[in-house]
Amino acid sequence: DARVTQTPRHKVTEMGQEVTMRCQPILGHNTVFWYRQTMMQGLELLAYFRNRAPLDDSGMPKDRFSAEMPDATLATLKIQPSEPRDSAVYFCASGLPPDFVRAGELFFGEGSRLTVL
Amino acid sequence: AQSVAQPEDQVNVAEGNPLTVKCTYSVSGNPYLFWYVQYPNRGLQFLLKYITGDNLVKGSYGFEAEFNKSQTSFHLKKPSALVSDSALYFCAVRDVTQGGSEKLVFGKGTKLTVNP
Fold it and tell me: What is the count of structural domains for chain A?
């Protein structure tokens, strides 16, 4: 059963520390999205990639956040330095190319719950 | 820019009764519309989508949604609610005009509680 895999599932860190979250998209999916979920803001799109190229990172605080896809099987989201307001659940999702029947449907990972003290 | 509004933070229904979770959207072009469900401590799961064609779309677990272009709405419905339907429901929209982004914009979510 194909699924999006995210690590770590939980992370507690102190303010100022670097945090790296990883995502393995479903094989064959060519779009990858990073979303952040908080009670106050709901689901916010941070960045997305198509064929490993970044297309939109307008939702991401550029001074501390960075997102990359070093290869087709790995997407990373890095926060340096982390701050308490970054505490949230971070979701990775992947999707099929637009000519597939299920195009437009996103498959979400289980999320990485980040707590910054 | 596209946007989604879910006017109700919470919906409570009795088991066996019909349920409706409301969603309205705004896009500059043609919309693709989606419903997702999230159970506690889990990722979002796709329920159904409207792309084109019949305004009434059927999805997983007996859910359906009706696309209404004039009212820019895409309400989620189920004829008979189950306690196991209790979860957080998200409506999402994608603007598919030429050159439009593939990104989905989500609403704030509606917490559905089905009481036994």
Answer: 1
